[in-house]
Amino acid sequence: MDIKQIRNVGIIAHGGAGKTTLAEALLFNAKAVDRLGKVDDGSSNFDYDPEEIRRKITISTSFHHYNWNKVEVTLADTPGYINFEADTRAVLRVLDGAVLVVNAVSGVEVQTEKMFGLARVAGVPMIGFVSKMDKERADFDKSVAEMTEILKVQAVPVVLPIGREASFSGVIDLFRMKALVYSGDNGDFAVQDIPADMADAAAKAREKLIESCAEADDTLIEKFLEGGELTEDEIRSGFRAGVLAAKFLPVLCGSSARIIGIAALMDLINFALPDPSFRGSVAGSNPKTKAEEKREISEKAPFSAQVFKTLADPYAGKLSIFKIFSGTLTAEMSPLNSTKDASERIGQILRLEGKKQKTVSSATAGEIVAVAKFKETTTGDTLCDPKAAPVLFNLPEKTEPVISFAVRPKTRSDEDKLGVSIARMMEEDSTIHFRKDAQTNEFILAGMGDTHLEVIVEKLKRQYSVEVELRTPKIAYLETIKGKAEVQGKHKKQSGGRGQYGDCWIRIEPQPRGKGFEYVDAIVGGSVPRQFIPAVEKGVVERMAKGVIAGFPVVDVKVTIFDGSYHTVDSSEMAFKIAGSLAFKKAAEQAKPVLLEPIVEMEVIVPDENVGDVMGDMSGRRGRVLGVDARGKSQIVRAQVPLAEVLRYSSDLNSMTGGRGQFSMKLDHYEETPAAIAEKVIAEAKKEIGEEEEE
Questions:
Q1: HSE-CB for 454 with a 13 A CA cutoff
Q2: Cross-sheet strand order for the sheet of 304-313
Q3: Angle at 466 between CA 461 and CA 471, to 5 degrees
């Protein structure tokens, strides 16, 4: 396939704007499918996952393709909800163009702005499409004005709507200056003269379009300003240059459900959005020398590709989806995975058609295809020709989770299968993080939001027959001391035969925060024999792990053994270990024990207007604001705050900022817990310890 005849296009939008319905309309109008798939009745070619059908939202990007006027277009229907935007970000890295969908009724929404920003960062040229023009309160002019105002981009109509709401019947093509009037709901239209009552509006809109095209090219703007008439070729040349350079956002409109305005969009995708070669090359390195290297995006260069998405099916196995950047792939090849330094077998090359796949004999530069059951390959890995200049492409940035829950398997069988099942899901979704907390002994599941974690739990049950409950995770508190104490720990037991005798005197005192545990041997004169001194330390360390006031580990303590006594027959390592444990417990209780809570450092990125709200909220969470820095059109609030106060911060920040905020956090240090809060934590911990002992 000629790379110039390929388009890889993502449909991006705020959730519910009509992305998937538009993608379905594009397939249907190109006759790639024989019936119009619908989200509402579960017949969509894109939203086919049971969780997507039930929730009526896109959770994971899916792919299909159509051919329009000899151009092969691969469509990527991406998620629009904040919980799943990491998937959209990952896919945008390999797309060459995007259609930004705006709901004609609700206009530019929170995630519209976010998706526009993600596409801009990825360097993806865009076309705007105002959907649902046949709905009540649909307003094309308002939507275009909001794009200009909120997205800070020059939004330029390429068509004008004919009729409003239920009477919406077609569009005026401002390039051809003709009316495309639709009849029926199958995409049929007639080309007519512009209605007389719209002639002036069309002339003004065309003038603006020509001006925008001229501004995209220095030679054209000179001619335009001097009053010269631009030719049709010059207008189109300036238009395409403006779209590729993101000088303006061309905007069309239509009704996906009634297939109105879809043909005009398809023509513009072919004409204005670039083929994969427009990026020139892909940055990478030599896997052996690590020297920087660029691979030309061309059919003539050696084969190279990068896996950007993995679908894991418990029955069919793993499906690796990748974009070929250069060369040609055939089923007989055994490409090198240069990330893992492993060879892979192809078997079959698959073109994606929703939940189905079609086998092809080969694929070339620019195409997005898939291969099933790779043994070593995972998301982000590079595939290349092992003989002709191997290359290693840069890995995408990792997306850190924003919310964590404790996972409790319902049965022993569920617990046995949990780790393997989650590992399979993590192959598919890199935003899932899973671990066992060594201190609290809980399984911790982290993800991008409440809905994301709910979907994971549903999938575990449906695909892997693993049932779990989500709970608020325990906080990993610590204990320490503020004072000093000297005590005796004595273990003496006599019961027929050999007894047990261990006796030690220890001194405990606090260490600076973060210094850890220190054990000092200050025995003189052999009051405790050398061989028993390590046993006392063992007893102390075991007791520290169990805690003194609430069952949390004790840290930052210096323990000195300075005296004791022993029995020549009854003393043993075990006896001195028990003595050390008793001594530490007694000493810690006398040395002003306190509870320490984890403090996290947070970076909260919010629009300017929300900075005050976020800073005030941080103060209410016992946080300390460290500073505020500007980043583009947003502000970064840096703060330190107790972890216990921000366990559900994701949903709270969404409420505060209308979904436009984002944050990251990392453990910074531990601080003494305020007395009133410590009392509650200690009481709750003791209650839990009591319940566990009863069990």
A1: 10
A2: 342-343, 336-337, 382-384, 304-313, 317-326, 368-372, 349-353, 356-360
A3: 90
Cα–Cα distance, 263 to 94 (Å, whole number):
25
The pair of three-digit structure tokens given for residue 124, joined into one six-digit string: 């993806």
Segments of 117-162 assigned E as strands = 126-131, 155-157, 159-162
Tens of pLDDT along 226-253? 777 788 888 888 999 999 999 999 999 9
Separation of alpha carbons 506 and 564, rounded Å: 9
pLDDT > 60? residue 694? no
Cβ contacts of residue 536 below 8 Å, gap of 6+? 489, 502, 504, 506, 528, 561, 564, 576, 577, 579, 580, 583
The answer to whether 22 and 101 have CB atoms below 8 angstroms apart is: yes
What secondary structure does DSSP assign to 94-110, as a single string? Answer: T-SEEEEEEETTTBS-H
E-only strand ranges, 47-196:
62-68, 71-77, 97-103, 126-131, 155-157, 159-162, 170-173, 178-182, 189-192
How many CA within 13 A on the CB side of residue 45? 26
Do 591 and 483 contact (CB within 8 A), yes or no?
yes
Residue 554 per-residue DSSP state: B
Side-chain half-sphere exposure of 408, counting CA atoms within 13 A: 8
The pTM for the full model equals 0.81
Alpha carbon distance 327, 301 (integer Å): 5
Confidence of residue 666 (pLDDT cuts 50, 70, 90): confident
Alpha helices in 565-648 (DSSP H): 573-590, 611-620
The first and second tokens of residue 365, run together, are: 């530069």
Structure tokens at 543: 């007791």
With H, G, I as helix, E, B as strand and everything else as coil, classify residue 576.
Answer: helix
CA distance 548 to 560: 18
Distance CA 147, CA 155 (A): 6
Q: β-pairing, 189-192 with 126-131? A: unpaired
User: Which amino acid, residue 435?
Assistant: R
Q: In degrees rounded to 5, what are phi and psi of residue 218?
A: -60, -40
Q: Retrieve residue 532's tokens.
A: 């028993």
Q: Cβ(101)–Cβ(64) under 8 Å?
A: no
What is the DSSP track for 254-313?
A: -BTTTTBSHHHHHHHHHHHSPPGGGG-EEEEE-TTT--EEEEE-BSSSPPEEEEEEEEEE
The number of residues making up the chain comes to 695
Q: Do 11 and 66 form a contact (C-beta atoms < 8 A)?
A: no
DSSP label at residue 441? -
Return the number of other C-beta atoms located less than 10 Å from residue 8's C-beta. Answer: 26
Q: Are 213 and 205 in contact (CB under 8 A)?
A: no
Percent of the chain whose pLDDT exceeds 70: 98
The helix (run of H) or strand (run of E) holding residue 636 is: strand 634-642
Q: Are 631 and 590 in contact (CB under 8 A)?
A: no
Burial label, 366 (beta-carbon count in 10 A; 0-12, 13-18, 19+): buried
Q: Which of 332, 320, 310, 187 is nearest to 257 (CA)?
A: 187
